[in-house]
Write a structure and sequence with these properties.
Layout (H helix, E strand, L loop, with lengths): L1 E6 L2 H12 L3 E6 L4 E3 L4 E3 L2 H8 L4 E2 L7 H10 L3 E5 L7 H4 L6 E5 L11 H7 L4 E8 L9 E8 L6 H25 L20 H4 L7 H10 L6 E5 L2 E12 L13 E5 L2 E5 L4 E9 L5 E2 H5 L16
Parallel strand pairs: 1-2, 1-6, 2-5, 6-7
Antiparallel strand pairs: 3-4, 7-8, 8-9, 10-11, 11-14, 12-13, 13-14, 14-15
Helix pairs in contact: 1-2, 1-6, 5-8
InterPro entries: Fmt, Formyl_trans_C, Formyl_transf_N, Formyl_transf_N_sf, Formyl_transferase-like_C_sf, GART_AS, Met-tRNA-FMT_C, Met-tRNA-FMT_N
Family: Belongs to the Fmt family.
Enzyme class: transferase
Length: about 325
């Protein structure tokens, strides 16, 4: 098949590689424009662009797929099929109608649950034990198309967004390799989603990253690992952001039963910082104070003026 591939982050690279390994002709790759990254704000190409250039595949980076120029470009490529994976743009009907075999998407959740741009992070943040990948035909709505195939992937307590991205990337690539022959042969029986059961995973905001110490230890633990290693969860210490990259639940409780207010430091030792939450306690292990590198909490404690009874979340007093 002549395939146009559309994707942007590292999650999509495995799917692109698998399409190539399957012997199909990837006539072009579409990805998001290069963006400034890092402290120096250097213009950085998306991982999919880098992978495509290694294979000598032409790369296109339109700001808007809805533009007439982008639509005409897709039409000129005459693809049999368009494959997308975490592309970052919703394709207009004019593009969806181009390939005779349709447009399919590799989505990192078990649809209709977690439609949207952050399904992997939010599945961890919400404490799910199972997620997966769904391959579906694309429609004009947000992840609303009929489902072709899917695979389940367990979420372990040791998983972060980083490890789960990798697991789902590989699972999605394997599923895509098994699905493409069925599409090519015309043997697909797509199933409509139960739209009344749909849940959504919108892109994360700064407020999603803020730790609310009144929540349970387990909920905050899920938030921290769901935001690692990308944005990171944060609280305030002495009025400045204080990131938490890794923690463990020290003690669980079904409801608040402590004399200490949520966010209160209960102990500091060579193994980290124990903090009271709304239900249970949390031990902070890897942290990043404002203006500093990520470090072990125990290392930071050697020079920090942190005492039992002080509180995170406000001015630190």
């Amino acid at each position: 098949m002549r395939i146009v591939f559309m994707g942007t982050p590292s999650f999509a690279v495995s799917s692109l590689e698998r399409v190539l390994e399957s012997g199909h002709e990837v006539v072009a790759v579409f990805t998001q424009p290069d963006r400034p990254k890092g402290r120096k704000r250097e213009l950085t190409p998306p991982p999919v662009k880098e992978a495509a250039l290694v294979h000598g595949i032409p790369v296109h980076q339109p700001e808007r797929m809805r533009s007439r120029e982008a639509v005409k470009l897709v039409e000129s490529l005459k693809p049999d099929l368009i494959v997308t994976a975490a592309y970052g743009q919703i394709l207009p009907r004019a593009v969806l109608d181009v390939p005779p075999l349709g447009c399919i998407n590799v989505h990192g959740s078990l649809l209709p649950h977690y439609r949207g741009g952050a399904p992997i992070q939010r599945s961890i943040i919400n404490g799910e034990s199972v997620t997966g990948v769904t391959i579906m035909y694309m429609a004009e709505g947000l992840d609303t198309g009929d489902m072709i195939s899917r695979v389940e992937v367990p979420i372990e307590d040791s998983d972060t967004s980083g490890t789960l991205f990798e697991k789902l990337s590989l699972a999605g690539a394997d599923l895509l390799a098994r699905t493409l022959p069925e599409i090519e042969a015309g043997n697909v029986t797509a199933v409509a989603q139960a739209h009344d059961e749909a849940t959504y995973a919108p892109n994360l905001t700064r407020e999603d990253e803020r730790i609310d110490w009144s929540r349970s230890a387990r909920q905050i633990f899920n938030q921290v690992r769901g935001l690692s290693p990308m944005a990171g969860a944060f609280t305030l210490w002495n009025g400045e952001p204080f990131k938490v990259w890794r923690c463990v639940v020290e003690r669980t409780e079904t409801a608040a039963s402590s004399e200490y207010a949520p966010g209160t430091v209960l102990s500091t030792d060579g193994e980290g910082i124990v903090v009271q939450t709304g239900a249970g306690t949390l031990r902070l292990l890897d942290i990043q104070p404002a203006g500093k590198r990520t470090m072990l909490a125990a290392e930071w404690l050697k020079g920090a003026r942190l005492e039992r009874g002080q509180r995170f979340g406000g001015d630190g007093q």
